[in-house]
Known about the structure:
By secondary structure, the chain is α+β, with helices and mostly antiparallel strands. The protein is built from five helices and 19 strands. It has helices at 16-30, 103-111, 134-139, 179-190, 234-241, and strands spanning 4-10, 38-40, 49-56, 70-79, 81-83, 92-95, 115-119, 128-129, 132-133, 149-162, 166-174, 194-204, 207-208, 215-218, 229-231, 246-247, 269-273, 276-284, 287-293. Strands 1, 2, 3, 4, 7, 10, 11, 12, 13 and 14 form a ten-stranded mixed sheet that branches. It has a five-stranded mixed sheet with strand order 15-17-18-19-16. The protein is globular.
Amino acid sequence: MNPGIHLVHKPVGPTSFSFVQTYIQAARAHKERRPPRICHGGTLDPFASGLLLILVEPATRLFQYLHAIPKVYDTTVYWGVETDNGDPHGRVVFTGDSSGLSPGQLDDALATFVGWHDQIPHATSAKRIDGERAYLKAHRGETVVMPASRVYLHEARWLGHDLPRHSRLRMTVRGGYYVRALARDLGRLVGCGAHLTELHRTAIGPWTDPGPDQYVEIHGRDLLPWAPTRLLTDQDVGDLRQGREIPMGDLVPPDWPMPSGFPDPQAPVRGFHLDRFCFLLSPVGGNLKLLSALHGGL
């Protein structure tokens, strides 16, 4: 488990947390020192599959900067049935007649959700309520009132239909979007109910799902490539370590551009020294201040 971001494929079945635990256990079995600090960069439901980011050692400090970037999902929407959690394992709470659905009607319905909207997640989501994951409260039988979240759907298109049963959908969203909630809200809008039967995350930012039993390690300039870069001198590094600001200098533009029209993720500036990603920096006035040091570099 080398420091950096590891792109792995999560299969259907395990939780994101349990999947990460297998990596921690493997690291403990092969090393005498303490297991590396590891976290994942965005939850996937047990019924979902696809790209999961595993952040190792100083890369765990990059976690908060992964939220606002594009995420791409392919999913199957099943018409005529709404479940309490929006997936195929949930309890049926509504059934309706989907026999009258048409591709044109579904195009019009989908278009109404593009852009910024308030969305109410399911009570079985990973959203925190009073400091605890909502699904933990729901599984204990507690009544969970979910507040609306402001979410962003950048683009969405139907890949195909097998009406009146199901439709295939591809969508690009900002982090924090609840795809299960979109299926529920689409079903309510067209009047027949709906839930997801499949969900696959194909990409996060520039990174794609490596496929089953495969993984890719990301280091250096491939980390946060949507952020600008400042090349640092020895003097810059010394000033930053002493808590002093450094001149803005010449910033190298991002190596990967955001999709046209996508909301600015407010990325930090990457500080590189001797070809290693060592600092997260923030503009202040005409200078840069230290946000976080990535000890050892990436």
